[in-house]
Specification:
Layout (H helix, E strand, L loop, with lengths): L28 E2 L4 E2 L2 E2 L2 E4 L8 H5 L7 H5 L2 H9 L8 H16 L5 E5 L7 H5 L4 E6 L8 E3 L11 E7 L8 H10 L1 E12 L16 H7 L3 E10 L1 H14 L5 H15 L20 E8 L6 H10 L4
Parallel strand pairs: 4-7, 5-6, 5-8, 6-7, 8-9
Antiparallel strand pairs: 1-2, 3-4, 9-11, 10-11
Helix pairs in contact: 8-9
């Protein structure tokens, strides 16, 4: 019997396995590896041996991508979250993408779904799609996810989830090909995969910022899926706005001047993202800020020529 972790209600009924060897865990112990995994505050920390993160760093909440955010005070967090966003989707594209996602997830029967990299707002997906029970994973213990896990070695059995979502995560993953294999492994055949990743975007979350993705590279990673949609997530004007915002902030070295420049940049450049409503045709994807891939799990792996044939016949839009 594969062990569960009843201390966390969101993990009730969710089986956990060793992220290294995939053997069933017994009270967070792998009987095959003879490795004990820690838990703190009811949150299991299940990192594979090859992870770029250590259990010790996770338990100190200092070893993730955005540890500084998790330590900021409530007033600072509220102020930061109320600043206008520099990038984003125009209303028409946001509505179209939301409908595509809702339609795809509506076909998933009531079950369990996984959000990889749930971040500081982990409950948006459960609010939008309440027929699924969402398990939130992250590498930031300070965000209070259901469990700490590295997407290159997920601690779940094969075909555990009706849906797997990873939004703006892959750029922070040391081995995105391994991450893609794991996300597809834990997704049941017929299940829905939603992934978004940046294409033209400044460095962030340093030093855990490893790559950028063309739409075709993003789709090619997930060769156990058939595409439902491959499209621009944030457009070229968003890309220009974030570049200008970053350039303004990085003109300064002193902390207080950088902070002032960051706030000024949000107000100076946030309006530009609204111009993306006029940049929805395929020719504008060459300078888009990010892309989104929505796919459905197949019962077989596609040959690279099959993936490329579909991309040639169905360009990103």
């Amino acid at each position: 019997m594969i062990a569960e972790f009843p201390a966390c209600p969101s993990l009730a009924g969710v089986s956990l396995v060793c992220p290294d060897c995939k053997a069933p865990l017994r009270d967070l112990r792998c009987p095959d590896c003879e490795r004990d995994y820690p838990a703190t505050g009811g949150i299991p920390v299940l990192l594979p041996s090859w992870s770029v993160f250590s259990e010790e760093a996770m338990l100190r909440t200092t070893g993730g991508y955005y540890a500084e955010k998790t330590r900021e005070g409530a007033a600072k967090r509220a102020f930061r979250q109320r600043l206008p966003r520099v990038s984003g989707k125009p209303a028409a594209l946001r509505s179209r993408i939301s409908k595509m996602i809702a339609s795809a997830l509506a076909t998933a029967s009531s079950g369990v779904a996984l959000q990889v990299g749930s971040g500081e707002n982990p409950y948006a997906l459960s609010a939008a799609h309440p027929h699924l029970r969402w398990v939130n994973s992250d590498v930031e213990l300070g965000y209070r996810p259901d469990l700490v896990a590295d997407v290159t070695g997920l601690p779940f059995p094969d075909a555990s989830f009706e849906a797997v979502v990873a939004q703006q995560v892959l750029e922070h993953v040391y081995d995105p090909a391994a991450a893609a294999r794991e996300m597809q492994r834990v997704l049941r055949p017929g299940g829905v995969l939603l992934v978004s990743a940046p294409f033209i975007y400044p460095l962030h979350g340093l030093p855990y910022d490893f790559q950028r993705f063309t739409p075709f590279g993003l789709r090619a990673l997930f060769d156990w899926t058939e595409p439902i949609a491959l499209c621009q997530d944030a457009g070229p004007w968003s890309a220009l706005a974030v570049q200008l915002d970053s350039r303004l902030t990085n003109l300064f070295g002193q902390r207080h001047l950088r902070g002032a420049a960051l706030v000024a940049g949000r107000f100076l450049f946030s309006w530009m993202k609204h111009l993306d409503r006029f940049a929805l045709s395929p020719r504008h994807q060459a300078t888009a800020a990010s892309f989104l891939y929505l796919g459905r799990k197949l019962d077989r792996q596609l040959h690279p020529r099959q993936v490329m044939a579909a991309l040639r016949n169905r360009p990103a839009v």
